[in-house]
Amino acid sequence: MTHEKTWFKLAHRGLNVKNHHRSLDPSKRKCRMCDRANETMEHIITCGRARPLWLNIHALLEEMGEPNLRDTTSTEILITLITNTTIWGKPASESARATWRIALRQHYAAIVRTETENKTYNWQEVYLHTLQSLRTVATDYGERVKLKTERSSLTSKPWLPGHKQREKAEPLLWIEVDGSYSVDNKIQDHTTRITAAIAAKRSRTNRNTLGVRALPPRPFPPNMG
């Protein structure tokens, strides 16, 4: 429900953005990410600072085999997040909807932290938190299915997850007939890549802070064969 609340507020124009505060001086209604445009409900989704986040979310869903995704223009991304529909205007899979809503929640929380914790918005950290939350949500669901299967096996009426329930969880979560499960390995692949990117960025920042020039890469040794 925590993830649902942020999406519900976006869909019903209830998110707390600066442009809703008419008592604020116009100069203080700027976006907390870019500090250029007015912070509206539409802008916090279409802001250039957040665009890499949505592109990575889109790429993840494509890699997991999600069909009929809308394209990646700013307008289509906004429509996707509000309606959670495919290019045909039909509801996307539960995996896609969960991914978009979790990403939106993490995105908005990061915007709020720019004020409450005086932190700069960082799309890479938002994406990492999204992936971690996705794994947690998927694992929690998988564990509940597994536990229900194991407990029912001790009764006179054993229960096994049916085809529809298993299909409903895909592609984020793959549930077997016996109740065992696995989270799509693309989640871990993306987690590894974004973690490495964050670490590399911090390393560069630390070097610049200390005034140390980054050394050029060492050449590969000559081919001895």
Keywords:
225 residues, 3% strand, 8 helices, mainly alpha, two-stranded antiparallel sheet, 2 strands, single chain, globular
- Mean pLDDT across the residues is 91
Over the alpha carbons, how many angstroms does the gyration radius reach? Answer: 21 Å
What is the CA–CA distance across the termini? 61 Å
Overall geometry: globular
Low-confidence stretches: none
Total domain modules:
1
As a percent range, the share of helical residues equals 40-55%
Q: Major sheet, described briefly? A: 2 strands, antiparallel
Order of helices and strands: HHHHHHHEEH
- Which strand order do you get reading across the main beta sheet? 1-2
Number of strands: 2
- Strand proportion, as a percent range, falls in under 5%
Counting helices, strands and paired strands, the structural category is mainly alpha
Number of helices: 8
Question: Could you walk me through the main structural features you see in this protein, from its secondary elements to its overall organization?
Answer:
By secondary structure, the protein is mostly helical. The protein has one domain. Helices cover 55% and strands 3% of the residues. It contains 8 helices and 2 strands. A two-stranded antiparallel ribbon has the order 1-2. Helix 1 (2-11) crosses helix 5 (94-116), helix 5 packs across helix 6 (123-152) and helix 6 packs antiparallel against helix 8. The protein is globular, with a radius of gyration of 21 Å.
